[in-house]
Amino acid sequence: MKRLIVFFFLPVAAFAEMVKQSELDPAPILSVGLYKNGLAVVTRRITPDANGVARVDGACRPAYGTFWHSADKPVTITAETADLLRDRDEQAALSSWTDTYAGREVMITFRIAPTLSDNLSAAERNGGIRVKSFSIGENDKLFTLKGTVVAAQAARKPPAAQSRRYYYGYPEPTRPAPAAELTLRLKTGSTVVIPEANVVSAWAEDGIACDIERQAPIWRFEGTAKPFVVQYLTDGATWTPSYRLDLKGEKGSVTMTADLNNEMMDWDGTEVSLISGFPNLLYAGVPSLLGWGMSFNLYRDAVNAVENADPWAVGGAKMRSGVMSQSVMMNSAPADGFDISAAAFAVNESGAGSDIHYRSIGQVSLKKGATRSVPLGAGETAIKRIVDWNLSDTRDEYGRNRNNDNKDAQILWDAVRFTNPFDFPMTTAPIEVTEERRILGQAKSTWTNPGDTTLVKITKALSVTGSYSEVGDGKTVSSKIGSLKAEDRFDFQSRHYRREIVTGTFVVQNFRNVPASLIVKKTISGEIMETSIEPTKNRTPPTQDCHVNLERVLTWEFDLKPGEKREFTLTYWLWVLI
User: Which residues contact 321 (CB under 8 A, 6 or more apart)?
Assistant: First the structure.
């Protein structure tokens, strides 16, 4: 069979800068504060070399405006790229490719001149072809082949010293050491000879591998030889809380757990804090220009998206006073060394503010891609079984009836009210309610401060019923504005309104053979005239100024005896658009 040998000799050109992974500063994560939405406050230690330079793997996208450091001197941070030799097996990474993979089937990726494409294709189709190339140039192309690595042949033993002149016929010349080569035998029987310097990556089924990441992101810190820390906000880690309320008579036990998910980098004795609250992180979704793969166009579009979505962030006008306007932005450095300024760095313990809570759970070691469930404690609490009935407002902002039968408002819920037994807030999370190991239901627990009470719905109440209906007085329903008395008409924002008096009737009945405690809530638009039972609470939530009627939430709390039926009324008036 015909053998084809192809040689290519191309001029040598400089490669991109090569950096070994062992030369990078590992920059371990000292602490991480986890939000529930997938964001994390990351603090890492940077250890420069004797020249005051530290290189760190920069495969991360910090949030814009959150990247700060605590160096004792001004530090320059450069986001650059380099060819990174990532070692998965130290011996395979730095020894001969042939010695490492000899006799094993591998997938090889290598750099070769693009003119060899046809020859490589022919070798994969036909047997008996030998392709050999020495190509090192900036226009090289990546190829991937699968085959078996051929073991290196033993070097020919040179003749004895006394016979060398006879063997060569002249004194043995000085010969340069040949370049190391890897020979790959394809399934077709063809062979491809590749300079080992051209191999980019190798993967074997047994898992031994090492690879070169082209144009890997690197952070370069320059300016001080003393260790310091950097902190930034990024995504890649989160925590998800969950609660369990176990009922035992008039008491209950509340248990809390948290699932920690790490998708950024390994945690090794990292101090972990769980953050709860409702922080204002306006630019959390805008990657910093120091971030991996960022360009100005991506940054600009992200900033514009945030500021156009929130008119308050731009002073009520599109892109006015935005962060990309022509203005001076001042930076200030934190304190020296590890004495971190609280203004720039989050704390790890509770008490980071009245409405933002940091809870440290100690040091955690967790591999990248792993999730761990962590118990956060349990506490005993007093409980009260409640029947909860919540009726929404049936009127719109113009006082008109929404024309629905409000069937959902007829639903009463068996619920339980309990006190937060912990010395930290209970954050919004799912809560499972059980009794004697039987699951009664699952609901959502909302933010509850220590010592405060909350109510959790369990299941629909079938043995306690309720109904509500309301009617207008029928006296001022005329649509002719001129026929209304002055006190029964109102003009607001160029619209005409009339006064309407509404009477609502509540009917509740307990079919149980035990007493039932009820909480009845009704939201109305208008002014209360009278009620047959005085409300326990009368709350006015914030409303928009454009509404003609003020919204109110009325609450009644009372007990029903076994078999008792109770009826009470509410009368109020409101303005209705004509």
Answer: 314, 315
